[in-house]
């Protein structure tokens, strides 16, 4: 074939490939062509929060028909127990006449609805509550409005900074994993920022910055310094955890963080995409899949303790929920229903607490942050938690 024909053939193929890209990928390609490869954190941020095509800007991703199912969507028991946990914190800080119940990234509002139902059995606390939802997704905000329509005092915020002062219980379930991460990859020359670049066909590929990150090694956890060439280390900026820790340290209360992740900081690439309940390539179809990374609980602990807040845990989700009495709650619910629903409750209990395949029990971790004088919190200390007493 003459070179001219070959060129035309290639051009047509390339044009076809380009038109197959998602709208967000076309934008990302343009950005890379004009400004060069982008760091992984910027790519993740665009995938999730691009004002027009970002994954969390335009859809409800939860549930069987969506991309993933979270613990509150598995069973009402999860939110109910968290409600009782909030009650135990309220008592431990002297039952203040006003308590802000804050949820970061509240999804469909299911967990808050279940927690509030459990809290109705404590009228003095229920009357003291104001609910604050920090949510950027307009589609999910609408769902939350519908789910929580009867709640007396409720408001929405773009950021925790906007929530008025006062003692608070802050919940963050599967919130930290969607906050963008940085990645660095180890080369012979040092640690380089991991970037997203274009290959010759206009497809997204991973690469590394030309120059190593200056003095990066000294900032690394000891375990990671000895990592072999090729290893990946990832981290999140501390800004969100610092805001939470500062708030509970200065204004009383506690935060409860639940997410999948690891107890110890270590090397490893956990950047992943999830679509239709399966893992997907995070560089394919940006904006169409949830992109997440595991949460480093040791890094969260360090950041909170550096500010003088007290950290409790982390524990596995299975241990935490069992200490809060999930098994007793399941038996109570099963005693009141049909054999079919009873089997569903038993399945949900397993899913939330088991460590085996499909179980969330050990993959998910739970940690609390409180003001420094609160020496123990339910489910994360040795003492017994308040047993569930919801009807
Ligand atoms: C994985 S979902 C978890 C939802 C809910 N917590 C649950 O367990 O069902 C992440 C939630 O965080 C919200 N979100 C993502 N990025 C956010 C941001 N930067 N600020 C506030 N909310 C955010 C999403 O819209 C969604 O509600």
TrEMBL record:
The organism's place on the tree of life at top rank: Bacteria
Example GO biological process: methylation
UniProt keyword Methyltransferase present: yes
GO terms of molecular function: methyltransferase activity
Keywords assigned by UniProt, alphabetized: Methyltransferase, Transferase
InterPro entries: NDUFAF7 (IPR003788), NDUFAF7_sf (IPR038375), SAM-dependent_MTases_sf (IPR029063)
Protein name, UniProt field: SAM-dependent methyltransferase, MidA family
Pfam families in alphabetical order: Methyltransf_28
Gene3D superfamilies: 3.40.50.12710
